[in-house]
Amino acid sequence: MSETRSISLLGATGSIGDSTLDLIRNDRANWTVRTLSANCSAEKLAKLAIEFEAEIAVVGDEACLPELKQHLAGTGVEAAGGREALCDAAARSVDITVAAIVGCAGLAPTMRAIEQGNTVALANKEALVSAGEVMTRLVAKHGTTLLPVDSEHNAIFQCLAGNNIDDVRWITLTASGGPFRTKTWEELDAATPSQAVAHPNWDMGAKISVDSATMMNKGLEFIEAFHLFPVELDRLRIIVHPQSVIHSMVEYRDGSTLAQLGPSDMRVPIASTLAYPARMDTSCKPLDLANIGELSFFAPDEERFPATRLARESAHAGGGTPAVLNAANEVAVAAFLAGQIRFTQISALSARTLDNYAPPAPQTLDDVLAVDAEARARAGEMLEIA
Ligand code: NAD
Ligand code: MG
């Protein structure tokens, strides 16, 4: 890259945040960092803000602002806290915003970055799943470039380049199957949080790790793909591919299938968004196919892992239903991680919340946030009687 580009990173202290900043660190001269945010993690955020000479550091949780201010005193980095401050910082104009907050909590700031017309590299799938057309309409209205960071969607995006979407026969999302791919229902029922977050191929935040174990991650990605790539829902498929070498595939009507392969390292898809439409170096290990030896594929088992079915049905229902699914799943995953419910109750709670609440289609961001809040409340109530 020839000229300096400006970047804001929402969710700087997480796993995607770490990977993004590693790429920026190795390409330092080409980047100006404006906003770095976290929920709290004030000390880590302050350290990063100082290292990357950020313009502003923001904590979503206002209670963490005094600590952030203390760490940033005398550094020249602005400190801010609270939901509004986070949205305002996200609305600052930059060349690229990396949206890497986890959960629907990232929706409002991501929408502000879209509105500003910043190119948005989207990792925060829950935001797109919840807002759906409300987000894609805003993207179209402001002529924003939305680049998928999620490895599957990034793969599909690359496989679609130079082709006509009308020529697509299938889009196939690959799924590793997670740490419990071969477990029986009884074993799933007894699975602990520490087993669930130990993903065989990827090193990720706790929530997405649990989502990978339930396969809800693939369910959310199914809905994400539907919004990113305009094909009919029945052209979207999921296949289990335990090695996570093929990150997804597009089959065209002439019978050609294009696939994107790479190491299981999020720096690869992130780099492709940061440098888009060019390429940049990464220090990732090259793909060693001879060492990998074999690639295998299996049909998903929706008896043991009902989450992909719930997501497909939610996508078909449309409107506010995916936001309900996402909210219920966020509540359920947090409860599982806190030891309140068993692993198999995660999808069950989402299913019950979906049965209990069928909201009208949201038209605005506030509508989406209202559906999200109501679904959380209802899932929370069911948790108490679970
Ligand atoms: P993580 O838990 O490691 O990090 C989340 C970040 O969001 C942290 O910086 C945290 O401080 C911030 N955050 C959390 N709650 C917040 C709130 N209420 N308000 C403001 N900030 C908040 O998560 P992650 O694994 O980096 O994932 C981030 C997003 O990227 C998720 O949507 C995930 O699905 C998606 N994603 C992650 C990976 C991966 O490999 N980690 C891959 C694909 C997609
Ligand atoms: Mg993914």
Descriptive labels:
alpha/beta; 7-stranded parallel β-sheet; binds magnesium ion; binds nicotinamide-adenine-dinucleotide; 386 residues
The poorly predicted ranges are: none
Biggest β-sheet: strands ordered side by side in the sheet: 4-3-2-1-5-6-7
Largest sheet: 7 strands, parallel
Quaternary structure of the protein: single chain
Order of helices and strands: EHEHEHEHEHEHHEHEHHHHEEEHHHHHH
Q: Look at the structure and give the mean pLDDT.
A: 97
- Give every kind of bound small molecule, once each: nicotinamide-adenine-dinucleotide, magnesium ion
- The overall strand count is 11
Span of the ends, CA to CA: 54 Å
- Note the beta-strand portion: 15-25%
Number of separate helices: 18
Provide the gyration radius in Å.
20 Å
Give helix % range.
Answer: 40-55%
Overall shape: it is globular
- Please identify the structural class as seen in this structure: alpha/beta
Describe the structure.
The chain is an alpha/beta fold. 46% of the residues lie in helices and 15% in strands. The chain has 18 helices and eleven strands. It has a seven-stranded parallel β-sheet, with helices on both faces. It has a four-stranded mixed β-sheet with strand order 9-8-10-11, covered by helices on one side. It binds nicotinamide-adenine-dinucleotide and magnesium ion (MG). Residues 150-152, 221 line the site of magnesium ion.
